Amino acid sequence: MTDSTSNALAVYRLLPRMGEFRTLLLGSSLRKLIRWQITGSEADMPTSFTGSWDGNPGWRRSEFPSGYPGAPVLSRRVAGLLEAELSDSGPFVPVVTEPAEPALPGDGGGDGSDDYVLQVVEPVVDCLDTRRSSKPKRTTGEITKAHFRPEALPAGLAAFRIPEYRGGVYWNGWAVDRLAELLGDDLERRLVWSEDPAATPHPAPWGF
């Protein structure tokens, strides 16, 4: 994996790190998001999500709890600290957990029912080098091997999507660095592409 603090452009997929953390299941709420990602219609834009916590009830809730490719969820603490950097990529939509659970020590207070937001990543940018990339999978649209055109990459955005895979959120390296500073062990970073020829992309970036 490359060091994204270098000058080389780099693109990542993010997901919760495996460990003694609780993760979030979005259930039927995820279908609303996928429909909007496909249609792009303002009428389909989700305004709220519901979720349920998975894992040992005694574990701490992750501050990046969603592993769904197109559904990045952040704690309100992290979203608030990075709002200026992330806001150009799309709005934060509240996630309500059902049933509400008491917050555990280290969870930041609150009753746990509305302490998280999902960032609905809006920008769809035509920046994939389709000749050098693998074809999208028929069932999911995932692109296992992606090459981006550096001159077309939206490097100023924290996160973006591409026309060939509208259901996946890609993160630019500088934003990954900022998130990693705050999330620490909660976050797993998988390199998708780098303009540094010495960097090795993850062999299965969209897998679990």
Can you tag this structure with a few keywords?
single chain; 208 residues; alpha+beta; 6-stranded mixed beta sheet; 4-stranded antiparallel beta sheet; globular; disordered N terminus
Describe this structure in words.
This protein is an alpha+beta fold and 208 residues long. The protein has 4 helices and 10 strands; from the N terminus they run E-E-H-E-E-E-H-H-E-E-E-E-H-E. It has helices spanning 29-39, 76-81, 83-86, 173-183; strands at 10-16, 21-25, 49-54, 60-61, 73-75, 92-97, 116-119, 159-162, 165-172, 187-194. The protein has a 6-stranded mixed sheet. The longest helix is centred in the first third of the chain and has 11 residues, at 29-39. It starts with 9 loop residues before the first strand and ends in a 14-residue tail after the last strand. The model is unreliable at 1-5 (pLDDT under 50).
List the helices and strands and how they pair.
Blueprint: E1 10-16, E2 21-25, H1 29-39, E3 49-54, E4 60-61, E5 73-75, H2 76-81, H3 83-86, E6 92-97, E7 116-119, E8 159-162, E9 165-172, H4 173-183, E10 187-194
Parallel strand pairs: 2-4, 3-6
Antiparallel strand pairs: 1-9, 1-10, 2-3, 5-7, 6-7, 8-9
Portion of residues in beta strands equals: 25-35%
Range of helix content = 10-25%
Helix/strand-derived category reads alpha+beta
Overall mean confidence score, pLDDT:
90
Q: What's the number of helices?
A: 4
What is the terminal-to-terminal distance?
17 Å
What would the principal axes of the Cα set say about the shape? globular
Q: Report Rg.
A: 17 Å
Helix/strand order, N-terminal first: EEHEEEHHEEEEHE
Low-confidence stretches: 1-5
How would you write the strand order of the largest sheet?
Answer: 4-2-3-6-7-5
How many strands?
10
Largest beta-sheet characterization:
6 strands, mixed
